[in-house]
Amino acid sequence: MIVVYALVLAMLTTAGLLALWRLLQGPTTLDRIAALDVFMVLIVAAAAVYAAYYVDGSNVPLLAAVALIALVGTATAARLVERGERHR
């Protein structure tokens, strides 16, 4: 089972590096917002893998809070970008 956890963390790390690359290279603000959203989802997934590996359910409220903050932040940022493009 340790091999599965290692593979999952390796895939999450690869996805995190790709999201970080898109965050730094993204030509538009919406690309950067999407990359931040993906990065937050990856953080939640990594914390869930940690909780599963150590059979520790105390992190579940933390996972829910981070996911909610990511959702609200992404929706707010997308709305602000949309308003900014309407004024051009």
From TrEMBL:
<feature type="transmembrane region" description="Helical">
    <location>
        <begin position="61"/>
        <end position="81"/>
    </location>
</feature>
<keyword id="KW-0812">Transmembrane</keyword>
<feature type="transmembrane region" description="Helical">
    <location>
        <begin position="36"/>
        <end position="55"/>
    </location>
</feature>
<comment type="similarity">
    <text>Belongs to the CPA3 antiporters (TC 2.A.63) subunit F family.</text>
</comment>
<feature type="transmembrane region" description="Helical">
    <location>
        <begin position="6"/>
        <end position="24"/>
    </location>
</feature>
<keyword id="KW-1133">Transmembrane helix</keyword>
<dbReference type="InterPro" id="IPR007208">
    <property type="entry name" value="MrpF/PhaF-like"/>
</dbReference>
<keyword id="KW-1003">Cell membrane</keyword>
<keyword id="KW-0813">Transport</keyword>
<protein>
    <submittedName>
        <fullName>Multicomponent Na+:H+ antiporter subunit F</fullName>
    </submittedName>
</protein>
<keyword id="KW-0472">Membrane</keyword>
<dbReference type="Pfam" id="PF04066">
    <property type="entry name" value="MrpF_PhaF"/>
</dbReference>
